[in-house]
Amino acid sequence: MNLLYNILVSIVGFLLKGIALFNKKIKLFVDGRKQTFENIASVIAEKDKVIWFHCASLGEFEQGRPILESLKEQYPIHKIVLTFFSPSGYEIRKNYKLADIVCYLPLDTKLNARKFLDCTHPELVFFVKYEFWPNILNELKRRSIKTFLISGIFRGNQAFFKWYGGWIRKALNAFEHFFVQDENSKLLLHSINFKNVTVSGDTRFDRVYEITKQDNQLSFIEEFKNNRYTLVAGSTWKEDEELLVDYINNNASENEKFIIAPHNIKKEDIQKLKSSFNKRVVLFSEKDQKELQKYQVFIIDTVGILSKIYSYATIAYVGGGFTKSGVHNTLEPATFGIPIVIGPNYYKFNEVVDLVKIEACFSIDKSKKLSVLLEKLFQLKKFRNRAGENALKYVIDKTGATTKILYYLKNERKIR
Which residue, 199, 244, 188, 266, is CA-closest to 373? Predict the structure, then answer.
C-alpha cells in the first residue's frame, strides 16, 4: 500500500501540471509550490531555531492561530514556518506577520519530505486538526522531531481504524501527543493503541472569543446601520442569496437592514446579485461615494472584514448550508452573542449541531421557512436575546483548549 501511495502521489503531481493550464485554483496550487524550497532557504538559516505549523486551509489556520501566537510571544527568537495545502488558505494568509515564512507544503513524496525538513529543521511541529501525510510524518519520526496534533478530530470511517489501514496507522507514530476535540476521538485512538491523547477541546473557541476583545470598529458599517436592526449574511452562496433576496424583496420591514458578504465576489456575480433586489443597494466598492444610511442592503464585495461586521449584527445568516461541503463558520457570529440562521447541511460540524440543539442556531430548508423565522426573530426581542445568550454561553464554556496545550508544552519542556 505504501508503494502504491507513492506511485499515486507522483502521478497526481504530474497530472496537476496539465490541469493547471485550465483551472485557476489548481494553477495557484502548482505554481505556488515551485519556489517553496528557495523561499525557505532565503529565510531560514542553519542556526535558526524553528517551529513549524501546518494547516490544510484557512479554517485550520484559525484553529492553530492561538497556539502559534502564544508560542511566538513566549519564544520570540524562534522562527515560525507556516505551511498550507490549499490555495484558499495560503492566498489569504500569505502575508501573516507573525510567521517568518508562509508557503505551500510540498507534495508528499519521500524526496520532498527529506528536502523540506532539511531546509526547515524544526524543533517543534504542529499539525492542525488533520492532514496526515505519511512520508512527511514518517520522516519526522525518523528524525525524532517533536510533533503534535492540535484540535484533532477522528471518525470511525477513517482508514486508521480499518483492517487495511496498517500502513497509514504507522504514520501516526510520529505524534508525541494528540490533543483532540472530543471523547470519541480519544476512544478511537485508544482502540488502535495510541494512549498519548488528551481531550483538550477545540482551539477555535479560544480564537473566536479573542475576536470580541479586538478593535472591531468599522465606521462605514456604523454609518450604514444607523442604529437599526441589522441582519448580517456571511459567506453566502447562490442558494442562500436566492432565499434572502426573496425575503428582502417581499417580506422585509423598512426598519430592517441587511449586510451580505458573498462567498464569491466575482464582479459579474456581484452585479447580478445587486440587480436582483428591489430595495436600495450599495456595494462596499462604492461606499466612499454614497450616503450609506440611505440604503437598505449593503453588499460586501471584498474579503477579510466579515468577523468585524458580525459585531454589528442583530442576527446572522451563515451561508454554505445548501452546498455539499456544508455551512461555513458559525462560531464567529456566535461569539458576539447573536442568533444564527443556516441551511440544512450542517450535521458534520459538531459545534453547529450543538448550537442548533440549544436553540442558538436555526436551520431552514426553503424560502417560506426562512421568512417565518426571520419575522419571528425581528418581532420577538426576548426570543432573539435568549438565542444570542445561548450562543455566547456555548462559546465561553468551550474555551480553554489553548491553555491546556500550552500547559503541557511548558511542563514537559518541549521547547529549548
Answer: 244
